[in-house]
Amino acid sequence: MSHPHPELPLPGPLPVGALRVVALGGLGEVGRNMAVLEYDGRLLIIDCGVLFPEDHQPGVDLILPDFSAIADRLDQVDAVVLTHGHEDHIGAVPYLLRLRPDIPLIGSRLTLAFVAAKLKEHRITPVLREVKEGDEVEVGPFALEFVAVNHSIPDALAVAVTTGAGTVLHTGDFKMDQLPLDGRITDLRAFARLGERGVDLFMPDSTNAEVPGFTTAEAEIGPVLDQVFAGATGKIVVASFSSHVHRVQQVIDAAWANDRKVALVGRSMVRNMTIAVELGYLTLPDPGILIDIKRVDDYPPDEVVLMCTGSQGEPMAALSRIANHDHRVEVGPGDTVVFASSLIPGNENSVYRVINGLTRLGAKVVHQGNARVHVSGHASAGELLYCYNILRPRNVMPVHGEIRHLVANGALAVRTGVDPERVILAEDGVVVDLIDGRARIVGAVPCGYVYVDGSSVGEIGEADLKDRRILSEEGFISVFAVVSAQDGSVIAGPQIHARGLAESGDVLEEIVPQVRKALTEAAREGNVDNHQLQQVMRRVVGRWAGTRLKRRPIIIPVVVEA
Amino acid sequence: MSHPHPELPLPGPLPVGALRVVALGGLGEVGRNMAVLEYDGRLLIIDCGVLFPEDHQPGVDLILPDFSAIADRLDQVDAVVLTHGHEDHIGAVPYLLRLRPDIPLIGSRLTLAFVAAKLKEHRITPVLREVKEGDEVEVGPFALEFVAVNHSIPDALAVAVTTGAGTVLHTGDFKMDQLPLDGRITDLRAFARLGERGVDLFMPDSTNAEVPGFTTAEAEIGPVLDQVFAGATGKIVVASFSSHVHRVQQVIDAAWANDRKVALVGRSMVRNMTIAVELGYLTLPDPGILIDIKRVDDYPPDEVVLMCTGSQGEPMAALSRIANHDHRVEVGPGDTVVFASSLIPGNENSVYRVINGLTRLGAKVVHQGNARVHVSGHASAGELLYCYNILRPRNVMPVHGEIRHLVANGALAVRTGVDPERVILAEDGVVVDLIDGRARIVGAVPCGYVYVDGSSVGEIGEADLKDRRILSEEGFISVFAVVSAQDGSVIAGPQIHARGLAESGDVLEEIVPQVRKALTEAAREGNVDNHQLQQVMRRVVGRWAGTRLKRRPIIIPVVVEA
């Protein structure tokens, strides 16, 4: 397998009859998935999601794919295909549509319902085109076929895109639960038909490629929930992702079996499950089983289940606030909290903080570490091998993963007989051309992280984040002085302000005489240029901070003449 | 089991014949372990370690136990017993000895060797008293007996402390590998003898109390390493904790079996393993097997193993630098990197960043997710149950864990028949008295986090950390203006400086005219008080940042008269 080349040139023009593929997000990170296909001057986008920031990206709200490679070609975009309704596949759609609101969005009913609700919050009215598995749709030069796949949200689709260059099959996110709650399996017969016709480029979900074996079935959780509920004497609180319809279904079923009502808690949980009920994806054993959160106290604790958000320890979500005694819902001895959710790598500290908080309140906490209350939504190595053998793709470009996931997925392909030269390990921005049935890396386009920060999009850059990290680790010191315009003598100040350094202001006052002395000497030497005086202040303060505090804060020296 | 009370008073004086126990660290977090026992006016300290900061404690280097409860009683401390040489048990000793350098340190040979090396770096010469398992030692009113325990560092000890109030047994950190590499098992016969004499208070390690079953044996890793080494065609790099002597032993043994030399990489790895070889804890199959890092290039890649630090993705340690192409050691296609280490919760992002970096360089990466190259150092529930049944303690106070771990450990005790009223769930600062064979919570002393930050100890407080977090998420804006002392009109400025906000300085310049206008108006209204003018500036800038940027940066407004 060829590894991604660090130094790739901009690609040349697209040869006639060739298909060009570039990921603008989702390859090299788990999140902000976005693939762009180009054929004969037209573009097709598959997914447009967001990535959530890590701790070294402080203050950032969301990270978007980098649209710059197509920013001046948006009129050539024929459609955006949305494989399913998860944030890392639809979350950036509002930001794309801001640039061109009439780009058609193609997806299944539930996917479009979720994205429409999101776009309504952004006050954008989209052009929607609903499809379902089995549909065949022409969009510009792209002939699309949709295939049902099973995932941790209902109504997920894989899409086969056929052009003069051949057929590309993109799985979206998928697994292969053979007895899913809704009976909607990943359609391997459709994969078989596509395989027989010939798949020129296979783009499979790499998330669990490193995990040997097979992903556990969702239905195995039901009996565990039932057992936990049956043994619970007080209130039950369950946390999961607000889009996990089947997980909520199992919670509702277990509640029903144990004579408990269910209250949905958290704005996104209420919104998403309301949509799911309306569209028939969530089945209520009885219309009265769902009660409003405000009515929970009308019932004894052992007759309620609260289905809430916050499974990742997000500070503002319901569960963290419950753990912090900052929510109308109170939890205490005798109550049970179930984290029916994954623990996304990076979120461990937040989640354990909430678990400890709930434990301190006296609750019993059940989570995937001590009970089978979660299964993954992604195919493991075992399922991926089935796919490679059924599809026998001519070329493979693993998607949806960090490089370790992509490499592991590529290795699986090779083990089933795919020529290593035809396994493309690309990262965001790397351009791949499919010509005459052969896929190759032909160059790369710039592709950075685009930060949504407060109201700004793309204004915060790496330099700002570096400043923020320095600020957080070292703090800052501002020094202000007013000097005479005539002779540079100090008229007022120096005044010193600092944050994040040391609680005692006295510590800082040590430096003031040193700065004044340095300024006075500089003026005596005829140094009256503001910039030079600021540099003098910066040096004195920096040296002092380094020696006295062993810190390197950001220093803002300001000299003003008067 | 009674849960820790949120509102506990200061404890009263210690009754005659009673033993008082308080943890100043280690209960409620995994780290900074320190227990203080008091009897008849004398104090005995068990362990004195550090806690490593999380991302919400930016810039902090280390977190110490809170010595304030004993700060004015240090002359009453008879000794510090150090159960083993891990940082979370010895790392804070230098900071304690700074306060009273002649406090005797009691521990095993390897433990004292590690702590002496650490103290040398702090230029402190300690009073050392070496003991080994089986020794009985009197220290003030405390009769100490030492028991061998097996852990992920050699020469670990449990300590039984007998006074007029009875016997306390503190396990230190332990597990119960029955076939350990050095043959030094956790001495259950000694536990049985203590149990028959009577254990009044048992203080067991809770780290793995939530994990059912038994901890895997260290020796199971050897064959896995051998298999990985045998199949490796290029260079091999192995990362583990620099104090894990037995892990390094297995790496050396596998290297020997596969005709490879071993180079130690990283300052602490070299220092600790040198001590271990000198004292006979690490056995070299041949004196020539260890080579200096500078000589690695004298050998073909398939004849070397590099044993290095950085298993937790620490940015400055060897492995991260190797992954970043910032180290004399280079890694590429054909090379193998083994993370023979745990993944401490909270470090996932750092570790995966390094794994992805190494993968991008073309290396094969082996870690506990895909091979048995690590086992825990702590007893699981299965082993803890053995201990409760053999010791049959009268009272139990779980130690060494977050509250979820302590609660799980307490639950195990109850299942073996310990009266729930005699299971003490305490956190740092909670005071427990053992009187007439009964342990009870009697109050709490203040016990906060003491931050080591640069050269300061205990100067950075929660307010500073909160400022740093705000700085990192929101940035800051300084506004500086010079006004006339006569009429308050603006003489110079306003000048605006910001960091961590937006890359474009133009954005900030928007606010300057608004600030000038607000200052001029305030002056016209007769508002010439500096403080009030600063408040005016703060309000204008704050409102602008909130509306225009949707951010709430720290604002430093400075008005100077001239």
TrEMBL record, chains A, B:
Active site: 205, 378
Annotated residues for binding of Ca(2+): 59, 61, 453
Free-text cofactor note: Binds 1 Ca(2+) cation per subunit. Seen in 1 crystal structure, it is not clear if it is physiologically important.
Needed co-factor(s): Ca(2+); Zn(2+)
GO terms for cellular component: cytoplasm
Name of one Pfam family that matches: RNase_J_C
Protein's name in the database: Ribonuclease J
